Amino acid sequence: MNIQEKMNIALKGWVITGVGMIDRYRYLVVGQWDNDPEDEKNPYISKKDNKKYNHPTRMFGIDIENNKIIWNTSLDGLSKVYLDGGSIHDNKEAFFFGLGGVTYHLDYGADKFEHEELLGTTERIEAGTARGSRGIKLLGNHFYSAYTGNQVHRRDGVRKWTDISKIPREYCKKLGSCSVASLDGFNENEIYFSGDEGNLWYYNGKIWEKIFGMPQEVDFEYVLCSDDGKVYAIASHGEGVAVGRKDKFTYIPMQKNDPIYESLIFATVHYKGKIYASNHTLYEFRENHWVKANIPGLYGGIEHLASKDGMLF
Predict the structure, then answer these.
(1) Sequence-separated contacts (24+) of 299-305 with Cβ below 8 Å
(2) Pick from 144, 127, 128: which is nearest to 136 by CA?
(3) In this predicted structure, which of 45-59, 97-111, 201-215, 216-230 has the lowest mean pLDDT?
(4) Which of 145, 232, 236, 313 is within CB 3.0–4.6 Å of 306 for a Cys-Cys bond?
(5) 61 sits in which H/E element
(6) Of 237, 247, 241, which is closest to residue 203 (Cα–Cα)?
(7) What does the longest C-alpha to C-alpha distance in the chain come to?
(8) Cβ of 298: how many Cβ atoms within 10 Å?
(9) 35 Cβ neighbours under 8 A, 6+ residues apart
């Protein structure tokens, strides 16, 4: 039985709600149960507490090097998911974040899967009100997480997260509210995050700078540090793209005839020097507009994207 056949069996009854990668051989998938919990013919009952859930969630790993599917844990209660992984000091690790404050750390090498909340107490975690995340990224030897309020944290050890966002947080307090929707970086000395109302920031490893001149009516849902050497901040409904680097960006509005103008973008990714966005169809960004991606063997139904080590997932 090949890996595709094993995936079909493992995913029966589940809908994929998030994908990520550790490396070119190890992939991460989160799925939610696709059946009504009141369906007596096919209910979902958690093995943790023997209860039915409206949106039960499970995570599994795909190991194509060893041709196997690895179910790791039940993630019941995990809402919209953000995940990323990679190698830290030659040890393969990954993180899964949810908006409800449910946070999981996967140590692939040690075969350990543990809860690791950033700021929440045990009581808040159990109540589902602990700190959630709007982005997670492995840069160098640290994971970085972003959250509403212009908060950015760096993981400096097991259950040890350091707030590195004093300047953007203080700026946010003056405004009354700020959101973060995405975080990315070229390395630990060049990090960016983006959010609603033109919220775009650059970090040089010591201080943060706000990128001014972005239209406040645009919500930047994604920021990507591409291997073409540019940074792209992409509006949530395809209204425009900001392109630049460090503190110099140019905002490019899309025309109404652009194929994803005012369309909901499900995911974006950079791959081999190009920027891609999905809304069932996969599109490629070219200078000032989007075109349908020309990738052999690609078909419709695309929502989630991940890229690492020269592979597109």
Answers:
(1) 302/266, 302/278, 303/16, 303/266, 303/267, 303/278, 304/16, 304/17, 304/18, 304/19, 304/266, 304/267, 304/278, 305/19, 305/267, 305/268, 305/269, 305/276, 305/278
(2) 144
(3) 45-59
(4) 313
(5) strand 57-63
(6) 247
(7) 58
(8) 12
(9) 13, 42, 43, 44
Task: Report yes or no: 177 and 171 within 8 Å, Cβ to Cβ.
Answer: no
Distance CA 144, CA 155 (A): 6
Place of tokens 């994803």: 260
Q: Could you please report the per-residue DSSP string of 264-293?
A: ---EEEEETTEEEEEEBEEEEEETTEEEE-
pTM: 0.88
Nearest-angstrom CA–CA distance, 258 and 253: 10
Tokens of 178: 């700020």
Rounded CA-CA distance 205/186 in Å is 11
Q: Which residues of 136-154 are buried (b: 16+ CB within 10 A; e: fewer)?
A: bbbbeebbbbbbbbbbbbb
Q: Which two tokens stand for residue 12?
A: 């029966």
Query: CA-CA distances (angstroms) from residue 249 to 195, 211, 213, 241, 243?
Result: 15, 7, 8, 10, 5
Give me Rg for the CA atoms of the chain.
19
